[in-house]
Amino acid sequence: xxxxxxxxxxxxYIIDENCFAQTVSxxxxxxxxxxxxxxxxxxxxxDWSFGVAxxxxxxxxxxxxxxxxxxxxxxxxxxxxxxxxxxxxxxQYFNKEHFVLNDQLSFSxxxxxxxxxxRNAPDSAKEAYTFxxxxxxxHLMRSVGGHFYLGLLYEMQNLLEVKYNPNGVFNKQNVTxxxxxxxxxxxxxxxxxxxxxxFWPSDGTFGQIYINHFGxxxxxxxxxxxxxxxxxxxxxxxxxxxLALQLYYFGNRGEVPIRSLASFGGTNRMRGYYDGRYxxxxxxxxxxxxxxxxxxxxxxxxxxxxxxxxxxxNDFQLSQFKYSYGGGLRYALNKSEKLNLRLxxxxxxxxxxxxxxxxxxxx
Length: 363
What we know:
Elements: E1 7-10, E2 30-43, E3 47-59, E4 70-79, E5 84-94, E6 99-114, E7 127-145, E8 148-163, H1 169-172, E9 181-193, E10 204-214, E11 224-236, E12 242-254, E13 262-264, E14 278-280, E15 282-293, E16 298-310, E17 322-334, E18 339-348, E19 353-359
Antiparallel strand pairs: 1-2, 2-3, 3-4, 4-5, 5-6, 6-7, 7-8, 8-9, 9-10, 10-11, 11-12, 12-15, 13-14, 15-16, 16-17, 17-18, 18-19
């Protein structure tokens, strides 16, 4: 049985969130709250891992009472198997949300698993490989009224190194991107967002579609176009309980390298499956969560999801969709902003299951 286990022991000092609160009395940044805590984790794949995580929530102007809370998170993690990840990501709301910036920057050198490409990749095909890469994703959005935003995107990935079994799946399937490569692409987006809360939306709708093209003009080694559709709906039910729904499509056209393919599974979608258990050019997923707060600190969720990958959009078959389900606990690091630690356990089909411990909700 393939069993993925990840346990994070967070040694943070949560006696009172005010211990972390720092208020800056200037016109530029207000209500700044900072958390920093060491992290110890273990999984079958990584052995013991050690690191530090940080989270900062803030408003860019104390005069701006309309914008939601901006945030930045950081993580540095190193394992006994010499795996290393350093990442920064966040969302910043500017000038009464006339502008919104999503940003992500990371460096990783990480052993991974690969089963081949396609929805029917067998368990027996699994083999280990290692990659080393830099990654950058920037998404700047401009309000155009009525909760709509037009946006510009930039994405860069520099795969410095790939190590794999020369007699394994990579060469047998002649996988695109099995050697070091560089991709760079720019695109446009349209977003609708009327959610009130940044971290735990209780009502509202989020919808986003974007198109990102990678080609020679931007210095990319491969020529392809990426399409993403992300629809989310949140409804308050009985006693502050929330029903959250998401429909997600990720698709590509052209010559797509391995680490830009749709990756099935992970901490945010199809929990219970190893991230990348199935890979292909396209992915379609639907998931739902029922979120139940116990008090201002503690809560729980129940979730389920279904989806699949395919080589073309027309190749999806509902009868072959895979499913997962599970539940989890929540602990609010910041009661007012509802910034949660989440511990989830997801169960997929066959031998797929796993624990996840993350900062923030899955969607």
